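Narrative of activities, Objective 1.

The group set out to show that a structural description can be obtained from nothing but a protein's sequence at a throughput compatible with the screening campaign. Below is one input-output pair from the validation batch, recorded exactly as produced.
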Amino acid sequence: MDAMQWTLEQMRYFEAAVAAGSFSGAARRLGRAQSVVSTSIGLLEAEFGVELFDRSRRSAVLTEAGKVMHLEACELLRQAERLQLRAQLLSEAPEAQLTLALDEALPYLAISKLVKELAARYPALELVMLNATASEVAQYVEQQQADVAFHFDRGPISPVLEQQHIGSVAQGVFVAKGHAMAHGQEVSRNELTRYRQLIMDSDLNREHAFSPAVWFSDSFYSIAEMVADELGWAILPLNIANYDNYKGFLQEVPCPALALSRLPVRRLSIHGKKLSETSLWLTTRLAELLLDGPRG
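Output recorded for this entry:
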């Protein structure tokens, strides 16, 4: 079979004639002479070996074969546009693909908005998202399974990583609605020591332990579930405690003596590796979203 000789320009003339309803209309839309459009479509028909338009009509009416070929032409033009967008991405940014690791406990609304804006800003980007615990997302970057990660600061990081703090999220002390401390009054540090504390830490780190009885978990969601099951009290990010799944089961307990600071959020990347334009934009935008977000 001989190689096809048709061009994308002919496909655009074909699509324009169908959209305009006439060759003259297509010519005006494209800024070309009508003879150019007519000749181009005639050559296309010769190449395909089928008539695309019914020449007995004054308007550009498709034949049955023309209807089928028009669908194929439209799809081809869409593919060409996607190819052009991908080429544009490659010319404007260092990567065509980005693997992003996200702490599963980060505020959902901020992350949701971030991803939607990412899709609009870089439409040809191929994105891989890895959602895991704070410690796991750090490992993804360290093992170079992810280009960049955002997570809650859980302490020292590997020497192969570098960090940038970008914002913070409010946190508080929470108990189950039926817990003895759910009396609506302030509690003291001494009162907290009477009950089991549930701590978000996979390394059994007692730095944040205020009670002699502690349980550990590597997931804030797991901690929230245990608090709801009246297994103890915990310090939780407000965005986790306010999720619909826990809202009716958890109660914040004011404890001024703890003077809880906001839980910092940081970006992780390989030390010395130059960050792409996309990664830098994600960093700046997530910092803005965390700043603009509600107290939780």
